[in-house]
Specification:
With 334 residues, this protein is mostly helical. The chain has one domain: Formate dehydrogenase/DMSO reductase fold, CATH 1.20.1630. Helix content is 79%, strand content 1%. It is built from 15 helices and 2 strands. It has a two-stranded antiparallel ribbon. α1 crosses α15, α2 runs antiparallel to α8 and α9 runs antiparallel to α13. It starts with a helix and ends in an 11-residue tail after the last helix. The model has no long low-confidence stretch (mean pLDDT 89).
């Protein structure tokens, strides 16, 4: 037993760059949450634009089996950040505790509102809980985007220009995902307006990305040079292509392709944030990935655990989405 512990403490498993891999994993988990729960947020925003009860019930039925499971990825993201980079977790959450409480409050409101909405078929009751559902669905991604923007530039303040434009971009991106998901799941139960909302949202997202990059050019230490690095340039160009492909696919009714394009946009955005931040993981203090990571032994143990557990989590979600695949039917309810 002692020899095994000594071996794990002597160096990284298989000689892998574990701090960098955990940095990538943390952002991958954040991207997974933003994509999976993002189409739930987007569906909630689109809920506000639907004129009749049939359409609103279709939205709730479409996201009903998924939204609470999708939120697990936010917990996994926070857990991975705390486990691998505890000082960064402590610093971020203490500096931005108001944003954290805002995000949690919006998530609670988004989760509670549909449950309350279905309790009484009273016009006034459903109107107010419907508005609460929309508010939680819009505020959660906006505040999450503000958190990510402030993290990237190392701002200690909750309300900043980069936070606002990033929040707008993330909110628009969730509507992009939500429109594709609803077209895939609800189809004839929703009006063609949903397609037009998705197309408008992807245009708004790309414009918001341009605005965000413009603000970042004045806030990042490397300025424009960081934004013109080959990886970032390729990702931004790919986002424009994915946006155009998304709009074309949604209008053709290729809804699964449109949803995949929305996923590409989501992970592309997270990759840009990670690339602009690396090798720092806490720009507010200048702490690098290597400096913030825990020592070799716990990092090795966590890496082995993650290699065993993450495939099980992914398998669970594959089974969940397979079980509820296909469009919703008229008989289904939230």
């Amino acid at each position: 037993m002692t020899n095994a512990v000594d071996a794990l403490a002597a160096g990284p498993v298989l000689g892998l760059p574990l701090p960098e891999l955990w940095f990538a994993l943390v952002f991958a988990l954040l991207g997974t949450f933003l994509f999976l729960d993002g189409f739930d947020f987007g569906a909630g925003a689109i809920f506000a634009r639907l004129p009749d009860d049939e359409g609103r019930e279709a939205v709730l039925s479409a996201i009903g089996p998924f939204w609470d499971g999708n939120e697990v990825w936010l917990v996994v993201f926070g857990g991975a950040l705390f486990a691998a980079f505890p000082s960064v977790y402590a610093g971020l959450f203490s500096r931005h505790y108001l944003l954290m409480f805002g995000i949690l409050g919006a998530l609670i409101l988004r989760g509670l509102a549909p449950e309350m909405y279905e309790q009484r078929h009273d016009a006034r009751w459903q109107r107010w809980w419907g508005r609460s559902f929309v508010a939680g669905s819009v505020l959660a991604p906006f505040l999450l985007g503000a958190f990510a923007g402030n993290w990237l530039v190392g701002s200690p303040r909750s309300l900043t220009l980069v936070g606002v434009v990033t929040g707008v971009a993330v909110t628009a991106l969730t509507v992009v995902s939500g429109a594709a998901f609803l077209r895939l799941k609800a189809r004839e139960a929703l009006p063609e307006t949903v397609t037009e909302i998705g197309v408008a949202a992807v245009a708004a997202y790309l414009l918001a990305v341009v605005a965000t990059l413009g603000v970042l050019a004045t806030r990042l230490p490397a300025g424009v040079d960081a934004l013109l690095s080959p990886p970032v340039t390729v990702l931004v160009a790919a986002s424009v292509g994915l946006g155009a492909g998304y709009a074309a696919a949604l209008r053709r009714g290729a809804n699964l392709v449109a949803l995949a394009a929305a996923g590409g946009l989501t992970y592309g955005l997270i990759a840009v944030v990670g690339l602009l931040m690396y090798p720092r993981i806490d720009p507010a203090t200048g702490t690098t990935v290597g400096e913030a990571a825990v020592s070799t032994l716990p990092l090795n143990l966590m890496s082995i655990g993650a290699a065993l557990l993450l495939p099980l989590v992914v398998t669970y979600f594959a089974v969940l989405y397979s079980a509820f695949s296909g469009p919703i039917t008229a008989e289904e309810a939230y």
